[in-house]
Write a structure and sequence with these properties.
By secondary structure, the chain is of the alpha+beta class. Helix content is 31%, strand content 21%. It is globular and about 60 Å long.
């Protein structure tokens, strides 16, 4: 069974199992044990997320005994699983998939980053420069300077799109980024570099140079985790879910200043959480 999950990032220390802390995987393991569906190694999550990163849609593959697959349909599976999950983690759709399906092999993943949650994000800026900074990351690159390097993973990735995420009035909230796969901290480092271009601390040419010369360490910063949302995953064995960035309305703006921005972040987090809750309700209704 493959199931679509959503969760609020501040409630978990990331998605993968870690000792002595609450994670999405540990919460799922507990629910499956309570249901009597647990077997060793039965759960695999598609996309790993860091502590503080919220998710509208992640995918998990759950290997179930044939008796469960025969007697439990997809809707009942979702209901039963949610009965044993906390309110900050929700299953909103399930789909029976072939045994050979690999949950990590997605066609694409789309992340949103709400750039205005970065400290010192300006209320006004040159949108054409913003769009040029976004475009610099599109295509195949060695992202060594825009990730946390992992010796077991190649830093070369192909980014399909980096586009402005706008509200219903056309205001730029942040970025929408789509690729087949991402590296640790990649989106947050991309967002930080775009922020620094907007502030005129670096240029688009500096981004291009950092991508073209990965052997020369360059640090353009890392944006906070709470502005990041894993929005959707396009998987060949899971029914298509719309991937585009949502056109939201009513998102507030920071009042400016260090103290004002710090207080406003609490409101921004609530707005992000509300957006997710509305999406989970809508998507669950669509799937019924």
């Amino acid at each position: 069974m493959m199931v679509a999950l959503g969760y609020h990032g501040e409630a978990f220390h990331g998605s993968q199992i870690q000792r002595d802390v609450r994670t999405v995987q540990s919460e799922m393991n507990t629910a499956l044990r309570r249901l009597g569906w647990w077997t060793e190694g039965c759960l695999e999550i598609s996309s790993r997320t860091d502590s503080g990163v919220s998710v509208r849609m992640n995918l998990a593959a759950i290997s179930l005994n044939q008796s469960v697959l025969t007697n439990v349909d997809e809707a009942t599976f979702v209901t039963a699983l949610n009965d044993h999950l906390s309110g900050d983690l929700v299953a909103w759709k399930a789909h029976k998939v072939p045994a050979e399906s690999i949950v990590r092999f997605a066609r694409s993943r789309t992340y949103l980053y709400r750039c205005e949650m970065i400290p010192k994000w300006p209320s006004e800026f040159d949108e054409s420069i913003f769009e040029q900074a976004c475009a610099a990351f599109i295509g195949g690159h060695d992202f060594s300077n825009y990730c946390r390097l992992d010796p077991d993973r190649s830093p070369i990735r192909t980014v399909d799109s980096v586009e402005p995420w706008r509200d219903s009035d056309g205001r730029i909230l942040g970025i929408s980024v789509t690729a087949e796969s991402f590296l640790w901290n990649q989106i947050r480092r991309i967002a930080s570099a775009i922020h620094r271009v907007v502030l005129e601390e670096i240029s688009v040419a500096d981004i291009e140079s950092a991508l073209a010369n990965p052997q020369q360490p360059i640090d353009h910063g890392r944006a906070p985790a709470d502005g990041l949302l894993l929005w959707s995953i396009n998987h060949p064995d899971f029914p298509h879910v719309d991937e585009g960035a949502p056109e939201v309305e009513g998102f507030s703006t920071s009042p400016g200043g260090r103290r004002g921005h710090k207080r406003w972040l609490n409101l921004a987090r609530m707005e992000n959480s509300t957006l997710l809750e509305r999406e989970w309700i809508r998507l669950k209704q669509v799937g019924e």
